[in-house]
Specification:
Length: 537
């Protein structure tokens, strides 16, 4: 009797050891990869209770074969979770968060792969091999060797109590460390956000804002929404390479605002604030309104011309906002890792400009300098090829990616200039305003490429904000004053007010203190992330 009990206990211990392999690796590798001691302790304890939960679930199975299968499945799942945790800490020094998951939910599979590809290095690849191949193989081998009795009747009550206790402790104390729960909650929040946006923002007119109608004087305005373009790599902003040759030719005609930042460094959350009334105090705002709806209400015919694929796992936020436009043109249906050039938008723009409507508000959504930079410019724009790059981090990968990025910006420069020249040719009351949803880090301050809010470097936030005005617009508006405003510290979550000022759209909720073009402008703290003041970093 005692020998049988002892044998069963030994079997339990061995089974626990096998299921606990991922936890052991988290303890060992996490010691070096999780920078904050408190975070390390929380991750280990939280994952420890998670492992106890899975182990007890395994024990509840009565048949030996079912125990082995469930134990093997548990090891695979736990290994994948540890791999994700450690990879995230390796790249970002923080735990996986909801905002990072939002990025993945918003993109299609190839774009997600494109986003993640920037962060695969030797450690991540080795870890993937360890956790996804070696650990499951070792667990399979050990489970075959361990004699796992089918019944642990005396342990069943303890197992059930342990499951309940583990779940309670995880929920109360270690919820942020629970990747599965974080993912489920984030997906639920994202789905709710998309539903709310469709309810409010996809309609032609907003129910929450009454706009004063304008006269029928001919007007043609263009808002160019860039993608992933940092002003750190723009000649117009003092960059030491000629990345803006064509805009530099008309520099005297441009208002170049030099202290503008994006509200976020990821498209989904950034555009939600830039294009609507949402801000850091009211993220994912209820009863919302977009700049497209404002233009519709003011009597403009609105046109959304996009070079970004309209759908990912869900309909994109930008495409939901675009749905309110009089006409929608999604030029590209390719994945973001394909070769996509923004010149494809120009023929559509030409067609729209020929329409007989007097009042046009045109939104151009560029692919810009997104993702795989080498796929964002044609060969004739392959201008930067050498390693004469004044980069903080000097190695072949940096030189190659910086050259590609700078070539993409040089091409982007030509697209914006082409748009301006087309609007100039209209000879109407017109403006063109250009900004980017966020920037990118290109080895400027850190030895990395891309954008994430965990590093939150200045090149990720500091974006171009440029305006051009026709002679007719200048005659009707005192644009000379704008020259005094170009150094205003501004965050693009308030763009809807600046847009309304430029377009002379008047409505009750208008707040001129938030318009960069207004004499009533009041500088406010530019809050990012967890209400961190950008100007005090």
């Amino acid at each position: 009797m005692k020998q049988g009990l002892a044998k069963n206990i030994i079997s339990l211990v061995k089974l626990a050891g096998i299921v606990g392999i991922p936890l052991l690796l988290l303890v060992c590798i996490g010691f070096f990869k999780i920078p904050d001691t408190l975070d390390y302790i929380k991750e280990v304890l939280g994952f420890g209770f998670f492992t106890v939960f899975f182990f007890c679930m395994v024990v509840l199975f009565t048949k030996t074969k079912h125990k082995q299968i469930s134990a093997f499945t548990s090891v695979i799942l736990l290994s994948v979770l540890v791999f994700i945790k450690l990879s995230f800490y390796h790249n970002y020094q923080v735990k996986l968060s909801a905002s990072a998951l939002f990025v993945i939910f918003e993109t299609d599979t190839t774009e997600s792969a494109d986003f993640l590809s920037n962060y695969f290095d030797g450690f991540v690849i080795t870890s993937a091999f360890l956790f996804i191949i070696i650990v499951p193989v070792v667990a399979f081998y050990l489970l075959k060797k361990v004699d796992v009795p089918g019944h642990f009747k005396w342990f069943k009550g303890i197992a059930i109590l342990s499951i309940i206790t583990s779940l309670f402790i995880i929920h109360k104390r270690f919820e942020p460390e629970n990747i599965i729960l974080t993912s489920v909650k984030s997906y639920s929040d994202y789905s709710r956000l998309i539903k709310d946006l469709k309810t409010d923002l996809a309609k032609t007119l907003s129910n929450y804002v009454t706009v004063e109608k304008k006269d029928d004087t001919p007007e043609t305005h263009v808002v160019i929404i860039g993608e992933s373009t940092s002003n750190w790599h723009m000649q117009l902003y003092g960059y030491n390479r000629p990345t803006n040759p064509r805009l530099s030719e008309i520099k005297d005609e441009l208002m170049i605002f030099d202290s503008v930042i994006a509200p976020h460094v990821h498209t989904i959350v950034s555009l939600d604030k830039i294009l609507t009334f949402s801000d850091i105090n009211s993220p994912n705002k209820k009863n919302n309104t977009s700049i497209v709806q404002l233009a519709n209400a003011a009597g403009f015919d609105t046109y959304w011309i996009s070079n970004q694929r309209p759908v990912g796992m869900h309909e994109r936020i930008s495409s939901i906002i675009a749905n309110a436009a009089t006409e929608k043109h999604f030029v590209s249906t390719d994945n973001s890792d394909d070769i996509i050039y923004d010149e494809a938008l120009l023929p559509v723009l030409d067609t729209v400009l020929k329409k007989p409507t007097k009042k046009k508000m045109i939104f151009l959504h560029l692919i810009g300098t997104h993702g795989r930079f080498a796929n964002r410019f044609p060969e004739q724009f392959n201008y930067f090829k050498d390693h004469k790059v004044d980069a903080k981090f000097k190695h072949d990968k940096a030189f190659t990616l910086i050259n590609d990025y700078d070539n993409a910006i040089r091409y982007n420069d030509s697209i914006i200039r082409e748009v301006i020249e087309r609007i100039r040719h209209e000879q109407t009351n017109s403006f063109v305003v250009y900004f980017s949803d966020h920037g990118d880090e290109l080895f400027d301050t850190l030895d990395m490429v891309g954008h994430n809010e965990y590093w939150a470097t200045r090149p990720m936030y500091e974006v171009p904000f440029i305006a051009w005005f026709s002679e007719d617009y200048k005659a009707k508006n005192n644009t000379v004053l704008f020259e005094n405003y170009t150094s205003r510290a501004y965050i693009l979550e308030d763009f809807i007010y600046s847009f309304s000022d430029l377009a002379n759209i008047r409505f009750k909720q208008m707040d001129s203190t938030k318009s960069i073009f207004s004499s009533q402008f009041i500088r406010k703290p530019r809050l990012i992330k967890n209400r961190e003041d950008y100007d005090k970093r």
